[in-house]
């Protein structure tokens, strides 16, 4: 550990396996001695979003939709809109829903609500009326900010709205709200892949700790230009993409994702790309046909869904470097990453962010603790209680494996466990094997009800190209590497896998395809 570094500077040192009272290991992202971790967490959480994100400056901070904003211009716009929202009775603690596609106006509206001390209810712009009705009914916001297409949905639900294209303004900003790191900042609804979405309440300190952690571990500086093509309503695009840019002093180019567009923006000077595996798959497909020199790009980060080892290797070849795979969840934040300086290991999500502890609980469930973790679910004490252990560890629902070096690998989801003939099968273990077959472009494995076996392991395959997917060959390939009970008994060929907005496979919909 570098003893010359200031003790006031949080950083992630060499991974440390900390002994627990019961003898099991904990992987820690810590500074100095283990006893200092609580102090580190407090420092990472210090401050509030309006104080920390709206720093002055004459340099360009955001570009998008043919517009640019300097830090001074962003701050001035946010304060005018915050004043307008205050006139419309948005006060500290009040919830305001934001239902719109990515844009610079979205960012101004988001930061303006934070400047009033309000709580932003994030809404996926792809939601239709039933989904919007659930979130608006559950969160009960005082106001809804919506762009024109979503305003029609909001109006159809009998609610008023503030048009994103015509945000209210006032000549003077409201007084800085009396907030603390523990004050709620946003409600992010879970993706709902296994049930009705629940509202995760994230406080100011948690969002700051995540953003500061990302700046630290990915070496984000004022010289960086992030090509930002992720949804802003999601933690990946918000807590990493937007907050990381504003905290680092760097710049972001906001754009809709297209492989050609991203490559063009990277070749214009972009130094960073944050993405999900589905984006990198499309990017690699395009680069196979249109080779481009991306050697100047400093880092490619991937998360929100598992990165197949075959895609990892393809990225290394076509992007010119190994991507950094990371791990997180709405409730716990983005808190684990492969190290910037390596090794960047395929199939492993890496080591904890500064101030984060990770261990395995019952059934090897990944448990985490840190300043990035959420406070609880909105108006759902029962679900909140079920999500934490009695001693305060967040239960992620993911099955993990901790290596001797402290790195974490995700092996599956507890709720996705397939029980076939009395044996447990985790879909991800089977998928990793099938992804190596040359005829397999993408694959998702799920259990299908079976009278004989309880559940039958079934592989849903998207072909890689012209080579046909032959069921007997795929099953035989799996049997060469896995125990027979883990191997698919059926192979279903699909044109594409059902995914949510962040690229996660929706296993519950596979049987409908």
Describe this structure as you would to a colleague:
It is a single chain. Helices cover 29% and strands 26% of the residues. The protein has 14 helices and 27 strands. The chain folds into 3 domains: 126 residues, Rossmann fold; 211 residues, ANL, N-terminal domain (Rossmann fold); 96 residues, GMP Synthetase, Chain A, domain 3. It is globular. The chain has 513 residues and is of the alpha/beta class. The protein has a 9-stranded mixed sheet with strand order 4-3-12-11-13-14-15-16-17, with helices on both faces. A hairpin with a 2-residue loop joins strand 3 and strand 4. 49% of the residues are buried. The N terminus is likely disordered. Helix 9 packs across helix 10.
Key features of this structure:
globular; single chain; seven-stranded mixed sheet; 26% strand; 513 residues; Rossmann fold; disordered N terminus; alpha/beta; nine-stranded mixed sheet; 3 domains; GMP Synthetase, Chain A, domain 3
Give the CA-based shape. globular
In CATH, the architecture of the largest domain is: 3-Layer(aba) Sandwich
CATH C-level label of the largest domain: Alpha Beta
Examine the coordinates and then state which fold CATH places here, giving the name of the CATH topology of the largest domain.
Rossmann fold
Give a count of the beta strands, DSSP E runs of length 2 or more.
27
Mean pLDDT: 90
Write the layout of secondary structure elements.
Blueprint: E1 16-19, E2 25-29, H1 37-45, H2 49-53, E3 60-64, E4 67-70, H3 71-87, E5 95-99, H4 104-116, E6 119-123, H5 129-139, E7 143-146, H6 148-156, E8 162-163, E9 184-189, E10 199-203, H7 204-217, E11 225-228, H8 235-248, E12 251-254, H9 259-267, E13 272-275, H10 277-289, E14 299-302, H11 309-319, E15 324-329, E16 333-337, E17 351-352, E18 356-360, E19 365-369, E20 376-377, H12 381-387, E21 394-402, E22 408-413, E23 418-420, E24 423-425, H13 427-434, E25 440-450, E26 454-463, H14 471-479, E27 490-493
Parallel strand pairs: 3-12, 5-6, 5-7, 6-9, 7-8, 11-12, 11-13, 13-14, 14-15, 26-27
Antiparallel strand pairs: 1-2, 2-18, 3-4, 9-10, 10-20, 15-16, 16-17, 18-19, 19-21, 21-22, 23-24, 25-26
Helix pairs in contact: 1-7, 3-4, 7-8, 9-10, 10-11
């Amino acid at each position: 550990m570098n003893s010359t570094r200031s003790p006031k500077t949080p950083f992630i040192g060499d991974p440390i396996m900390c002994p627990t009272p019961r003898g099991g290991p904990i992987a820690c992202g810590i500074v100095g001695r283990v006893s200092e971790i609580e102090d580190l967490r407090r420092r990472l959480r210090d401050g509030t979003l309006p104080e920390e994100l709206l720093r002055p400056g004459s340099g360009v901070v955001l570009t998008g939709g043919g517009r640019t904003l300097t830090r001074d211009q962003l701050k001035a716009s946010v304060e005018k809109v915050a004043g307008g929202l205050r006139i419309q009775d948005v006060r500290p603690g009040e919830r305001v829903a934001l239902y719109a596609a990515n844009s610079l106006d979205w960012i101004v509206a988001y930061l303006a609500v934070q400047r009033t001390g309000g709580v932003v209810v994030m809404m996926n712009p792809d939601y239709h009326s039933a989904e919007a009705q659930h979130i608006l009914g559950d969160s009960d916001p005082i106001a809804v900010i919506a762009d024109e297409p979503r305003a029609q949905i909001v109006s159809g639900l009998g609610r008023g709205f503030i048009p994103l294209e015509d945000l209210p303004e006032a000549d003077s900003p409201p007084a800085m709200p009396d907030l603390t790191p523990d004050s709620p900042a946003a409600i992010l609804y879970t993706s709902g892949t296994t049930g009705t979405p629940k509202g995760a309440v994230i406080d100011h300190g948690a969002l700051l700790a995540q953003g500061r952690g990302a700046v630290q571990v990915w070496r984000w500086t004022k010289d960086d230009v992030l090509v930002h093509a992720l949804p802003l309503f999601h933690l990946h695009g918000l807590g990493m993409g937007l907050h990381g840019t504003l905290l680092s002093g760097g710049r972001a180019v906001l754009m809709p994702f297209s492989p050609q567009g991203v490559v063009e923006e990277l070749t214009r000077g972009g130094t960073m790309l944050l993405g999900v595996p589905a984006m990198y798959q499309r990017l690699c497909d395009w680069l196979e046909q249109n080779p481009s020199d991306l050697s100047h790009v400093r880092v490619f980060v991937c998360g929100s869904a598992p990165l197949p080892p075959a895609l990892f290797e393809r990225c290394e070849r076509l992007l010119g470097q190994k991507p950094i795979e990371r791990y997180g969840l709405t409730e716990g934040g983005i808190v684990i990453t492969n190290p910037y300086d390596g090794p960047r290991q395929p199939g492993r999500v890496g080591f904890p962010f500064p101030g984060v502890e990770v261990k395995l609980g019952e059934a090897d469930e990944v448990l985490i603790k840190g300043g990035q973790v959420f406070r609880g679910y909105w108006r759902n004490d029962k679900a909140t209680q079920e999500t934490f252990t009695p001693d305060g560890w967040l239960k992620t629902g993911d099955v993990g494996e901790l290596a001797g070096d402290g790195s974490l690998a995700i092996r599956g989801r507890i709720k996705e466990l397939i029980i076939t003939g009395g044996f447990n099968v985790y879909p991800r273990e089977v998928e990793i094997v099938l992804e190596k077959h040359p005829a397999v472009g993408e694959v998702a494995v799920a259990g299908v009800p079976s009278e004989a076996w309880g559940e039958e392991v079934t592989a849903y395959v998207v072909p890689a190209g012209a080579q046909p997917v032959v069921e007997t060959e795929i099953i035989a390939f799996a049997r060469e590497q896995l125990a027979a009970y883990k191997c698919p008994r059926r192979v279903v060929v699909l044109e594409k896998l059902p995914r949510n907005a962040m690229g996660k496979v929706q296993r519950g919909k596979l049987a409908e395809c």
